[in-house]
Structures are given as structure tokens and as C-alpha cells.
Amino acid sequence: MMHLVSKLPFYFSFIVTVIASSSSAYLDHVTEQTVKVDTPDGTRSYVVYTPKKKDVSHLLLTLHGFGESSSYFLGYTDFRKHAYTYGYEIILPESIGSGWNAGGCCFSTNDDIGYMKSIIRARRQVHGNLPVYGYGFSNGGMLIEALLCEGIVQKAVSTSGVLTIGEGGDEGLNTCDQKLEASGLIDNRALLSLQASVDGIVPWEGGSIFGNFPNKWTSFLRWGQRLGCRSEDEWVSTGLSTGFSRLPCPRGNQVVLFYIRGATHWAHLDWRDIYGVYAEDVSVKFLFEGVEPYQSVLFENLCSSPGYLC
Question: Do 192 and 286 touch, CB atoms closer than 8 A?
């Protein structure tokens, strides 16, 4: 997956260098620390970025995609630029090997859910029992959705990902149903699924050589069912190729799917360069303000729902 792209060192190192050079101002407002933690797989480390001179109000767990390093992922998402404004501490874990064990993806047998639990427990010992939000790209998005099933994160953004907990596929959807029903953690929850129509890595229709993936629209509707939402989605067009579906939800819940017609898997490439969509900025607005993607820009509705691949 992503490791195939990241083999182009000159082009991508140039991008990361440009991004880093433009970020010096907001880097003055955060501190960086590498921390070790005991996990089911032994001692592992993670990096945190904490706002200076401001109380931390939330923990933001950010998970890289398959084949990426956490530092590469940070280079193109860089949630540090919003950390002081919203008062969140960024948690930047690192997978063992190429990717995360998200159940039906992606070849890892490590206990990454246990790793995340250990990290959150350690950060709450520092800051208190703060709410935890999560963002993940691709395989990282899959694990973030699994963490929402487990009640480890309360709000989540999955970019080019899908729920693959347990065995993945439709069975994974059932596994999440059972976990949330057993926990009763179904109030004040939120999921934003950011998706593109031409995703050859995590296909819209499900299935893949990389894992056992469910249909993305089916997975979206199942999230709504778990959180008590009605299945009749409302489609809001935000551009010639973009829009989102929202489900009417009770008890402070939000379930939203943002859709880009014609875009590929790579949120940091054509999503930005062609469609002007910046996943990290959209995600922060959703997680911390409840604002749906680009909802202030309304265009003529081009189709009734992205579920019809129009």
C-alpha cells in the first residue's frame, strides 16, 4: 500500500520539507516528548505534542497508514497546527512492521488495541480522565474505527479506511455491534468517514487483496444503527465532485460520510491538489466543533446519495 508510494524519496521528502518549513510558527506553541510504555507486545514508544501554557482538554490519537512511519504521516497531516487553538495533546504511535493489526487488515498479529489502551491509560495519568478522539488514514483509519467499537475513543475520523475489527468483512460489523451493545457506550459518539470513489486500495464495494473489507456504504449505515440513528440519509452537496451524507442521530451522536467523486485513496495527494480537500483540517472542525465538511459551501445537489456511486 503506502510503502509503494513512499519509495519515491526525493518527491516526498521535498513535500515534507516544504510543509515543515511553513510550520515553524505553530511549533513554538507545542512541546515534543518521546515516551515508552509497557504493552502486551513488550515496551513500545510513542510521541506526544502538548500545547504550551494551556490546559490540555482532549487527547487526539493519530494513526498512520500502512507502510508509513509516524514521522512521515506527521509531515503531511501535522495536527500540531491546531493543537494550541483546541487544547488537545497529539498522540503519535508507531506500528511494529508495516501496519496496524485492525482485525481483517493488514497482516500484523501484534496487539495494537492493547498498545492504544496502554497509551491512553498513561496519558490520563498525566492529564486526568480526558476524552479521547481519533484520526487515522487507511489502515490507521481501520484501527481508529475498531477503537470506537471498543469504547477507547469517543469520536473518530476514518480517512480511506473502513471497519475491519475481528475477522473483518460483514462478520466484523457484527462484532462491533456486539461490543457496543455490551458496553452501552452509545451516547455522545461521532464518526466522520472520508471516502473517495476510485479507491483501489480499500475499495468502496468492499473486498481487497489486502484484507477482508466490508462495503463502505454498508459499514456507514451500520454505524448509524449502532448509535440509534435513522437510516434515511440526507445528502448535502459541497462542490461539483464533493458532498456528504448525514444520518439523523439521537443523544448527541453524529454519523457522517464525506465523499469525493473521482478521487483516489491518497488523501494527501489528489484530494488536496485536484479537489482542494484537506482531511486534517476537516477532521479537527468535525471532532472539536461538530462541523460537517465544507458545509458552508452549498452547490446544486448532483445526486441523492453517494451510496449510488453517481
Answer: yes
Q: Report the C-alpha gap between 39 and 152 in whole angstroms.
A: 15
| Domain hosting residue 240, numbered range | 2-308
Q: Is the pLDDT of residue 199 over 80?
A: yes
% residues pLDDT > 90 (the chain): 83
Integer Cα distance of 99 and 69 in angstroms: 9
Q: Which has the closest alpha carbon to 179: 145, 202, 215?
A: 145
Our CA dihedral for 93, 284, 101, 35, rounded to 10 degrees, sits at 10
The predicted model scores a pTM of 0.88
pLDDT at position 22 over 60: no
Domain count, the chain: 1
Positive or negative, the Cα torsion across 201, 202, 205, 207? Answer: positive
d(CA 86, CA 243): 26
Cβ neighbourhood burial of 214 (10 Å; 0-12, 13-18, 19+): buried
SS3 label, residue 307: helix
pLDDT in tens, 90-135: 999 999 999 999 999 988 899 999 999 999 999 999 999 999 999 9
Q: Which of 157, 71, 158, 145 is nearest to 112 (CA)?
A: 145
At 245, which CATH number?
A: 3.40.50.1820
